[in-house]
Amino acid sequence: MNFYKIARSLLFRLDAERAHHLTLSGLRMAQRLGIASFMRSNAPQEPVKVMGLSFPNRVGLAAGLDKSGDCIAGFGSMGFGFVEVGTITPLAQDGNPKPRLFRIREHQAIINRMGFNNPGIETALKNIQKSRKGFDGILGINIGKNKITPNENALDDYVHCFRKSYGHADYIAVNISSPNTSGLRELQTPKFARELLSPLMKEKEKLKEETGKNVPVAVKIDPDMGNDQIKDLSDLFNELQIDAVIATNTTVSRMSISDHRLSNEKGGLSGAPLNERSNEVIAELHAELKDKIPIIGVGGINSKKDAEEKLSAGASLIQIYTGLIYQGPSLIKQLVRMEK
User: Fold this and answer.
1) d(CA 281, CA 276)
2) CA separation for the pair 189, 186 (Å, rounded)
3) Vertex 109, ends 104 and 113: CA angle to 5°?
4) Residues 75, 328 contacting (CB under 8 angstroms)
5) HSE on the CB side for 311, CA within 13 Å?
6) With contact defined as beta carbons under 8 Å apart, do 94 and 117 qualify?
7) Which of 178, 256, 270, 316 is the catalytic position?
8) Total domains present in the chain
9) Distance CA 310, CA 38 (A)
10) Model confidence pLDDT, tens digit, residues 49-95
11) What is the pLDDT of residue 10?
12) CATH number at residue 204
């Protein structure tokens, strides 16, 4: 039994959220002591250029694990080519009531209804400045709106976080697809999406001119939309020249775990049950976007085979979250070695 399996057996005896915070505390300590790098893969790096950025490898950490931006170098030491922190909102918020994180061990899945719990953009950026030291990969900052902000005013929240993040991020991910903030997915409708993304892309051009720095914009979408909505969004992404699409967020579907005692828990389902649908969305997006807009594939990656399927479907980069919880750092090592 390897070290991670021993640690996981102990952590899985704890409440899921408590185990999550304990793991991050341990990683922060390893980060400070400089001992997290023992988990890094020794496999040769295969740099890849996506969104005009040079990624050390194709494997990234999805948003949701490091919500506060204070473990960047620690996760980087595991071998990730890029780390996406957040989702971060303008104001600090506690998120939804507990319990809000559930393991579905039989399906290697997780249900979460965290609700964008984060320290707010000002504190998060202070964390990022500290924890990024020693990290030589690509940093993504995932932004969203506060729960109390109505969709009619969502743009204000996104623009605020966008401006604040611009000087710190290598790319900015716009999260309009979490199922855990009431009404957020309405922002994926053509009307709301245009009203949100068009001003953000104009803001990007303005900041690019002011700073001389180009920060790509990626949009994260959900797996539960139909083909017509995917096509409509793809047309909009092409028109606005969005820099990348992240596919996909968690699902509200419970078809694949309908027999489980926790299947009625509200929230987004991630992990192995999401893999097939995520691949379908990636393939549909790729058919619409061609090679004009790259896709970051995420959802249900538990093995090298899963990751290769994402790349075959049309993804240029991949991200993991739930797979890391169940498989540990050895999964990163497997994925870094794969070839497209």
Assistant:
1) 9
2) 6
3) 85
4) no
5) 15
6) yes
7) 178
8) 1
9) 28
10) 999 999 999 999 999 999 999 999 989 988 899 999 989 999 999 99
11) 80
12) 3.20.20.70
- pLDDT tier for residue 177 given thresholds of 50, 70 and 90: very high
Residue 178 annotated to the active site: yes
**Domain limits at 105?**
3-336
The residue written with tokens 């995420």 in the block is 298
Q: Which amino acid is at 329?
A: P
How far apart (Å, rounded) are the C-alpha atoms in residues 135 and 151? 35
